Amino acid sequence: METKELIKQSELNRRRLMEIIYKAGAGHTGGDLSVMNLMTALYFDIMNVNPLEPKMADRDRFVLSKGHCVEALYTVLEAKGFIKPGVLDTLGQFGSVLSGHPTIEVPGIEVRVLR
């Protein structure tokens, strides 16, 4: 992806991020915004991932050690096509697959945090 396109995608992702955090009434805005450009570049330009074939053998893996930035990850996963449109709007709602920490129930996330 060209630099201008990555910048535009990152701007769209930041806008979407703020929408879902506002709607949910919760989130880690500062941490999410601090990783958005990086996550956008990784998922849209650098990593070998495919939402149509999420378990392909030669896929790249992204490790999120900063779990409080999960809203940014959810936003990028939606923009990339792993999460269906509209699901992101359920963040923080009872019964939603999206919670405040990454879980393997979310398409595109493969590892669960053990507590």
Structure report:
There is one protein chain. With 115 residues, the chain is mainly α. The protein is built from 3 helices and no strands. Helix 1 (3-24) packs antiparallel against helix 2 (29-46) and helix 1 crosses helix 3 (70-80). The radius of gyration is 13 Å and the shape is globular.
List the topology elements:
Elements: H1 3-24, H2 29-46, H3 70-80
Helix pairs in contact: 1-2, 1-3, 2-3
Q: What is the count of β-strands? A: 0
Large-scale geometry: globular
Helix-strand category: mainly alpha
| Average pLDDT rating | 92
Q: Report strand %.
A: under 5%
The CA-CA distance between the termini, in Å, is: 38 Å
Low confidence ranges: none
**H/E series:** HHH
The major pleated sheet works out as: none
Bin the helical content.
40-55%
Notable characteristics:
single chain, 115 residues, mainly alpha, 3 helices
Task: Give a short overview.
Helix content is 44%, strand content 0%.
